[in-house]
Amino acid sequence: MMTSVDTDLIRVLADPLRLQIVTLLARETLCTTHLVEETGAKQTNLSNHLRVLREAGVVDTEPCGRFTYYRLKPDVIAQLAGQFADLAESARNAAENKRACP
After folding, report:
1. At 78, is the secondary structure helix, strand, or coil?
2. Pairwise CA distance, residues 65 & 81, whole Å
3. Are the CB atoms for 2 and 20 separated by under 8 Å?
4. Which candidate, 34, 37, 40, places its Cα nearest to that of 17?
5. What pTM, to 2 d.p., does this model score?
6. Distance of alpha carbon 65 from its chain centroid, rounded?
7. How many Cβ atoms sit within 10 Å of the Cβ of residue 88?
8. Which residues does 25 contact at the CB level (< 8 Å), separation at least 6?
9. Span 41-59, pLDDT tens digits
10. Alpha carbons 35 and 32: distance in angstroms, whole number
11. Predicted confidence band of residue 2 (pLDDT cuts 50, 70, 90)
């Protein structure tokens, strides 16, 4: 049973703006302009966060004219959720395990 969690991905998603972006992209595919409107973030700041999400494999891009659309990769989120579910199951199974103090 797997009991470790992808800490790099957790760090990526721990940023409040990146988590907000991921939440928005879970609902629909959006371009940078939409994300600026929805988050209130400056375009340059938003672009930096989108780059981090792209490099982490959390989002895909789709060029459309002069715009770039962003789409959440649900399998990445599902894999992370599965890792947490495995961790929770391990904790349930180990609830009675207690290491004796020396």
Report:
1. helix
2. 35
3. no
4. 40
5. 0.85
6. 27
7. 11
8. 59, 70, 71, 72
9. 999 999 999 999 999 999 9
10. 5
11. very low
Element (H, E) at 99: none
> Cα-flanking dihedrals φ and ψ of residue 99, to 5°?
-80, 130
Q: What are the structure tokens assigned to 34, written together?
A: 């939409």
**Which pair of tokens denotes residue 37?**
């409107």
SS3 state at 97:
coil
CA 43/CA 73 separation, integer angstroms:
22
Letter string b/e over residues 30-54, b meaning 16 or more CB atoms within 10 A of that residue's CB: bbeebbbeebebeeeebeebbebbe
Q: What would the two tokens of residue 26 be?
A: 């879970």
Tokens in use for 2?
């797997």
CB 72 within 8 A of CB 22: yes
51, 35 contact by CB (below 8 A): no
